Amino acid sequence: MGDIPSRSATTPAGEPGVTGRHARPAGTGVSPNAPAGPSLGGGGALPTKKRFGMEAGFRGLSTAAGAMVLVIIVAIGFFLVSKAVPALQANTENFLTYKAWFPNDAEPNFGIAALAFGTVLSSVIALIVAVPIALGIALFLSHYAPKRLATPLGFVIDLLAAVPSVVFGLWGRDVFLNPVRDLSLWLNEYFSWIPIFGGDGPFGRSILLGSLVLSIMVLPIVTSLSREVFMQTPGMNEEAALALGATKWEMIRTAVVPYGKPGIIAAIMLGLGRALGETIALALTLGIVFNISFNLIENGGNSIAANIANTFGEANATGRGALIASGLVLFAITLVVNMAARAIIYRRREFRDSAA
Questions:
Q1: Please, are residues 211 and 126 in contact by the beta-carbon 8 Å criterion?
Q2: Which end of the chain has fewer CB atoms < 10 Å from its terminal CB, N or C?
């Protein structure tokens, strides 16, 4: 049968070895003191200094990009302040509380009160309309719809975000105006005892029309972000709820929605930032009236961005400065909204890190 190779043989260095056909060829041994380095696909090793150099370079590039964003934001704020100060000094009224807008007069008098009120009111109503619909669509796409339906439907909803705002504005003014006018007349006839639906008309180009158009524009943002948040819910959370006897809706209410609540809030605030800065759509659908009123159906309403679009062409030097001052207020509001959204996301990340 032949001799079985003995494993008692020793190598020249005194280590146990293998003789016969199992013996290692000479010169192929690996020294135990040989340094072990990271291997690449081809078997080579990336030098440590080069690897650390690449990491340091990428870290520096990322830091520079982040710092550049902050520099741009500060530069925009500095530009707005520098251009707004001369007009604010020439203003004869309180800029924050005055409602009228006459910056081109010999004695300029203008204020941001009515514009800021209309901006916030139209945006809030748009969110009240859009958020429940967006969350319902997001839950349907993530937990109810089959994949062959959810994928194309989600793609179509995302496409709404790519439609230019001027298209929404023209559609709202030329197509959606008549249905909203009919709705306003019906609300005024049966619910005029409610102040927001009162008044004697005319109806049509109102806060209601602008807010409904805004809600359609905000819908894809809130839907897309909420859908991604719902899909990140850990499967074990959902399976545990179902194992305890919960129905699918109870599972969503007790496992999915609480887990994604910070993400939902962040999506809503990002949608609010989108609505606050909308220009052309509101310029084409609001009544362009400088007043503070909670009536939603009478012609009226205005916003900071819409006022800039409508009056910039006819403004003199002081008028342009006044518009830039109003833009500074809108810039501050939008910045606060986005910072709040980022803070919510960061708090959620800290919670997940601590839980892990």
A1: yes
A2: N
CB atoms within 10 A of CB 87: 23
Any idea what the Cα angle at residue 252 is, between residues 128 and 132, rounded to 5°? 10
Adjacent-strand bridge partners of 110: 101
- Is residue 226 within 8 A of residue 138, CB to CB? The reply is yes
Q: Tens of pLDDT along 230-271?
A: 988 888 888 888 888 888 888 988 888 888 888 888 888 888
Is 203 strand, coil or helix? Answer: strand
In contact, 230 and 136? CB cutoff 8 Å: no
CB contact burial 281-290 (16+ within 10 A = b; e otherwise): bbbbbbbbeb
Task: List 244's β-bridge partners, or say none.
Answer: none
Q: Average of pLDDT values for 273-288?
A: 86
SS3 assignment, position 11: coil
> Which residues fall within 8 angstroms of residue 212, CB to CB, at 6 or more apart?
126, 129, 172, 176, 180
Tokens of 260: 């994604």
pLDDT digits (tens, 9 = 90+) for 170-218: 999 899 999 999 999 999 888 888 888 888 778 888 899 999 999 999 9
CA neighbor of 109 nearest in space, from 121, 119, 99, 118:
99
Domain of residue 241: give its range.
73-322
CATH number at residue 128: 1.10.3720.10
**Domain assignment of residue 104, yes or no:** yes
Q: Is residue 102 part of a domain?
A: yes
Angle, nearest 10°, between helix axes 113-139 and 207-231?
40
What does the pLDDT look like over 151-171, one tens digit per residue? 888 888 888 888 888 899 999
Residue 40 has pLDDT above 60, yes or no: no
Count of domains in the chain? Answer: 1
| Amino acid identity at 344 | I
- The structure's pTM equals 0.76
Beta-carbon count within 10 A of 75 CB: 10
Whether residue 347 is contained in a domain is answered as no
Neighbouring CB atoms inside 10 A of 9's CB total 12
Give the integer Cα–Cα distance in Å for 180 and 204.
6
